[in-house]
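[Meeting: bench + compute handoff]

Bench side (C.D.) handed over the final construct sequence. Compute side (W.E.) agreed to return the predicted structure before the next meeting so the bench team could plan truncations. Sequence as handed over:
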Amino acid sequence: MNATMTTATRVLMAAMLCTAAVACSKKVKEAPPPPATPTTAPVTEAPPTAGVYGPGDLDTDACLRTRVVYFDYDQDALRPEFQAAMACHAKYLRDRPSSRMTLEGNADERGSREYNLGLGERRGNAVSSALQANGGSGSQVTVVSYGEERPTCTDSNEDCWAKNRRVEIVYTAK
């Protein structure tokens, strides 16, 4: 029986060595094909001012035309849907160091006059902070609060109040 085991062990060892030899054989990689020669004209670089906002973009760029930021009731936190507009306005401020803007904070008619003036200011400061977080300069921004004094809608209902809870972006120097 020892001879049988020895023969079986030998056959098994030989099979394993053959398998290992096949598995370990080194494959030859083919050389990559030579790079193709371009058949199109070379790409020209954009002029150095490309992508830089100019005064005309305030009226033509969709992102910069967003000049009213709305707020939820009794809130001064910037809503997420206005983050992209803040990035665009901040880029405009970076591209145009001589530009200036006023952020006019407003509130709806509910609440006292003093409370609404404070809320309008907090909302203006929230927009200013968002602009600065996106690289805009605080020295180019002035915050003014009108509280409930400048409503865009005078009805006493939620739709109207929602329109009055806002900050208007007004460029004073383009």
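W.E. noted at the follow-up: The longest helix spans residues 2-24. C.D. will use this when planning the next construct.
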